[in-house]
Amino acid sequence: MGRPEQEITPDGSPVRLLAYWLRELRDDKGMSNKSLISRTGYAKTTLSDALGGRILPSRPVTLAIVAACGGDTERWAAFHSQVRRAVDPHTVGPAEITPPPWGNPAAAPGGVHNEQCPPNCASTEPHGWYTDSVRTRLSLDTATPEAVERRVVVATCDGLTRIPLAFSVPRHSADAAPRHGLDVTVRRGGRLTAGEQPYETFFRHQLLLPAPLRTGERHEFVLRLRIPPKQPMAPHFVHVPLTRSQRFSLEVQFDPARLPRAVWALTHVPTAVIYQRTPGNALLRPDRHGCVAADFEGMRVGYGYGLCWRDA
């Protein structure tokens, strides 16, 4: 038996996003890697590399996989060009990455994540929903860091019943504890299925909606995210949209008695930049209550938006 395929966590890297969405297309079609080898004519190693998320597959290999899965090769070709531009160090200006189409809309039932909108749907979002807005208040003046998020989603297909949720909680440099956690609860707008933690710093849930949504219907839900007691938090809070997300507002309440040495906004940055801890040109000042706020629009898939700070 061959080694099992290693799971991909979509962390904003363009190459990993491409591999992640190729796998979603393959799995949605119910294709095995053995079938892909037969249908594409490419070797096992070539396809494994394309679906591995470590290197950018060539355009011919990508489109061969898409064609074998019944996908829209023309739109996937445009998507591949976006990814290639995003990883090119000589690219001038931001490189936009738009999620690709999954496959044949008529082949998938509506209502769940990773399935196509109806053929006449006006939205370009292929997941059955998109995020209209995220409003987050992060409290750092409490016994343990706590964020309350209000999210509004819009259904792009009939019968939407659940929304996938994923959170990345990187370790603070001073955190040497053996366990690493995140407590997620729903205050309004649905209930959570049992969560999973496939990686030490990555947490995944499904939000079950109170009732199925119809195309164009909006739904608001409120989450509470809490770091476990005595677990330090990495000094940033960033929204990295992996699907269409239109607006994000963030308010961070610092402890007025322990204000950070510096605070700056992160706007349209690759995920690696988040960890560089390099202040931007414009530093932000907490108000007299210790609060800093920022708003973001026109966000692009796979890039980070939020606030970063240096601890006191």
TrEMBL record:
<dbReference type="Pfam" id="PF13560">
    <property type="entry name" value="HTH_31"/>
</dbReference>
<dbReference type="InterPro" id="IPR010982">
    <property type="entry name" value="Lambda_DNA-bd_dom_sf"/>
</dbReference>
<dbReference type="InterPro" id="IPR001387">
    <property type="entry name" value="Cro/C1-type_HTH"/>
</dbReference>
<protein>
    <submittedName>
        <fullName>Helix-turn-helix domain-containing protein</fullName>
    </submittedName>
</protein>
